[in-house]
């Protein structure tokens, strides 16, 4: 009881060990130095020109001597690392592929950015007739301009519906919620998946890296994309563009992101302070496309000043099909426990045609059961960090059990991720290292999992900090380490040796219960 009160996981005494000594952190290089090193590396033999790699012919590159990549075939072959074990997953990389054997050229992903559309976006010549017509009818063709009659004009098209009830929903997760990770969660029982948050302005400018966040795998049978923006016109044009170019089942608008760079632009949780702008965004987007528009919000902006309950009745009237309420304010970020009593209050105030989903701290099938029984008005619950730490939570909920998963079973899940990553990011050197980077980002979360058989009290709570402990075998001990060096060792089991001089620092801190600024 004393350990639980201090949010320390009650690991059985026989598995406890002294905490590891801290290691010296290397000094970080400046952005300018890193850019210079990248430019020099591109001209090295290890960075073979993609055209030359595909054909094996130096003369095939249209840029000839002006190409920024190397054309040294002999030099590339001499330094190329040994091939990885297994078959090539999906390969247009030719000689650069890290696999021997047959190269497959068929991808099972959709929602790529058409080059002609990208050029129109670059030149700002893309037309948005539906969005512009809807914005004009609402008087929102300029940001924040109030509608003349203040009412929403109905449109003749029938809105498509989506049913979230009882479905296991993997939350949209920045960085770690990538397509390969979503595939892992689908295998383990997730019903609904959603792409990582994409910024509307970047999508409208045709940025390929932002459009990559909208990609969908064929296994994602109920899939949405999440977008973030500050103004009705920007969001309306973005949803029309997505509706034209992508295959999605719903479009989610983020109105809860707490990150400063998003909030300072008037997007994310900043919208919680601007209900009339929220109204304009929901009306404009839902009136532009037939696809269901859903929104994700927090309880409010400032701690102690929840406000979504006062808007929940209006959100359905404005045109949203569903709303997910994350039980924290923007000021809390991810600190303290989620306020589920307040989420229940919102669900009970919503109209019958607005589905309300809850989000925050679900980490076992008991958490899921409790929220569903405490508040039958909830359509479903969204699972975020719980899935990052143990993606088999979806299996546990469906089978109603605590899965005492072995280290070997966990390694097999990681093998799936590595295979899916190589299919998505590529099987050349760059693809392997991109897969490794995102695997390491995921390992920075999943190391927080404590096996069921090691705990005196089950289930583990999301806010428990694990003490230093040994597992039931060497691999389980390695997986419990919070050291980046050990995460790299795990990555080498799956993707081969890291390049010389390789370092890794996680983008996010996985434990955000100590201090609010960790969010």
UniProtKB/TrEMBL annotation:
GO BP of this protein: mRNA processing
This protein's record includes keyword tRNA processing: yes
Positions of region (Disordered): 15-49
Classification via SUPFAM superfamilies: FMN-linked oxidoreductases
Enzyme class: oxidoreductase
Alphabetized InterPro entries for the sequence: Aldolase_TIM (IPR013785), DUS-like_FMN-bd (IPR035587), tRNA_hU_synthase_CS (IPR018517), Znf_CCCH (IPR000571)
ZnF bounds (C3H1-type): 48-74
EC number of the protein: 1.3.1.-
Cofactors demanded by this protein: FMN
Catalytic reactions of this protein: 5,6-dihydrouridine(47) in tRNA + NADP(+) = uridine(47) in tRNA + NADPH + H(+); a 5,6-dihydrouridine in mRNA + NADP(+) = a uridine in mRNA + NADPH + H(+); a 5,6-dihydrouridine in mRNA + NAD(+) = a uridine in mRNA + NADH + H(+); 5,6-dihydrouridine(47) in tRNA + NAD(+) = uridine(47) in tRNA + NADH + H(+)
Transmembrane segments: none
Record-annotated C3H1-type domain positions: 48-74
Highest taxon above the source species: Eukaryota
Record key words, sorted: Flavoprotein, FMN, Metal-binding, mRNA processing, NAD, NADP, Oxidoreductase, Repeat, tRNA processing, Zinc, Zinc-finger
Any one GO molecular-function label of the UniProt entry: zinc ion binding
Function in brief: Catalyzes the synthesis of dihydrouridine, a modified base found in the D-loop of most tRNAs. Specifically modifies U47 in cytoplasmic tRNAs. Catalyzes the synthesis of dihydrouridine in some mRNAs, thereby affecting their translation.
Similarity comment: Belongs to the dus family. Dus3 subfamily.
Protein name, UniProt field: tRNA-dihydrouridine(47) synthase [NAD(P)(+)]
Organism, scientific name: Citrus sinensis
